[in-house]
Amino acid sequence: xxxGEFLKKIMEKKGFNPSSLSKxxxxxxxxxRSMIERNLNNASIDNVIKxxxxxxxxxxxxxxxxxxxxxxxxxxxxxxxxxxxxxYGSIAxxxxxxxxxVTASDVRYINLPAEALGKYSHAKGLFALKVNGESxxxxxxxxxYIACKPIEIEDLKDDDIVVFSVDNEYSMKRFRRDDExxxxxxxxxxxxRKYHDIVVPFDTPxxxxxxxxxxxxxxxxx
Length: 222
Fold this sequence. Notes:
With 222 residues, this protein is an alpha+beta fold. It has two domains: 3-77, lambda repressor-like DNA-binding domains (434 Repressor (Amino-terminal Domain)); 82-218, Umud Fragment, subunit A, CATH 2.10.109. Helices cover 26% and strands 29% of the residues. A nine-stranded mixed beta sheet has the order 2-1-3-4-9-5-6-7-8.
């Protein structure tokens, strides 16, 4: 099997076409079409890496001319790249709480599965946190690891789950904007009724900061 045909077949198995793969990978549509038609001849390694990350395969699997169905299956399902992501401590999914600062000298890193992150696998500034608390346990259990994408408040949509702070105290909640009453509402989603909305007026003097929206989570089950 030629490399171009191999790439096209993997794309179809993953639910992509040249247009959608271009949007996810950042590689121009015409370049992807050319890679398929020319069997990756003269394709830049940078573009190959970007495409492989989105498809969840290794660069080696796509650059080697192998028509074995066994090799193809292994490439698609076994070679999944990961993203080395900074882990910035923990976030309270409960009442607002203080968070110890993390400095460059003591930051840890964890590997997140690129394929599981989907369209966010190439997002700039991704970072991870560990959830500490039960106020979002209907969605994200205590002890989960979350991946967060930095975002400005004007880019938030209702129902985004966000990491935020008020007066330098941090939390994670579901976001909603109430224009009629001119307030921002941060709501828990918990089996414990002790947690309540945090309401911040538009004109509040409080030091409100939105750090990121949560785009992925994982937890180890007992």
